[in-house]
Amino acid sequence: MAIQNVINPFHRGLQRQRGVTLIEMMVASLLGLMALSVTSQVMIKGQAYVAERSQQLLLVQTMSSVMQVLKEDLYQAGFDRGGSVTLLDGGHVIQSGPDAASLGYVYRVAENGEQAYRNVVYRFDREEGVLRLCEKAQPAPLTFLQASDSGWGGNCYSLFEPRQIRVSEFRVMTWRVAGGQATALLTEVRLSARLTRQPQFSHSLSFQLLTRNGK
Predict the structure, then answer these.
(1) Which residue from 75, 89, 153 is spatially nearest to 116, judged by alpha carbons?
(2) pTM, full prediction
(3) CA distance 93 to 135
(4) pLDDT in tens, 133-186
(5) What is the bridge-based pairing of β-strands 154-158 and 130-138?
(6) Which residues cross the membrane (predicted)?
């Protein structure tokens, strides 16, 4: 009997201790769920931020790539066996359209043949927010209008995915620069675009190019 009197209080204390531990576990579990909920919300917001930043980075990188390709190609404008060549109705090796929203040029890519000349036109469609590249390989230079439409030896295609990027400006300006017996052509190209689904985020780029075989 004495042993039971000693054990029972201990047993009751142990039960009380287990009860407190269970409550602590429940509280800890609740706190854990709350922390998990907060962490999940942070992760969701973080993923949304990463997705948003990736779209912004896509815009910047795509625009930079387009402008770099255009700039490098413009260095070849007018090349023709040591001389210079222009589009049939062009006065300069780099010709800007009447609204300064397009530019065209031509250069020789082969000694002769059906594709000796590459005729190129970059054309901005303001209503659609699209910048198109038209290129045609022909045996001779074309007019600006002939080179700027799809068909007859070449097609036009958008340089940006319209569902992702909308072009807001494409502007071309040219100046003749005379120095002694040489004549050069200074060309400035400006490009502005924005994300289609995040129009508040936009980006602009520009460059100037001096071509020595300008007219």
Answers:
(1) 153
(2) 0.75
(3) 16
(4) 999 999 999 999 999 987 767 789 999 999 999 999 999 998 888 776 667 889
(5) antiparallel
(6) 21-44
Paired residues of 104 in beta bridges: 95, 121
Q: Could you give the C-alpha distances from 163 to 52, 168, 198, in angstroms and in order? A: 15, 14, 11
Q: Which of 17, 40, 20, 16 is nearest to 28 (CA)?
A: 20
Tens of pLDDT, residues 84-116: 899 998 778 899 988 899 999 999 998 888 889
Closest CA to 134 of 108, 124, 126, 94: 124
Average pLDDT score over the chain = 82
∠ CA 135-137-138, rounded to 5°: 130
Whether the CB-CB separation of 154 and 135 falls below 8 Å is answered with yes
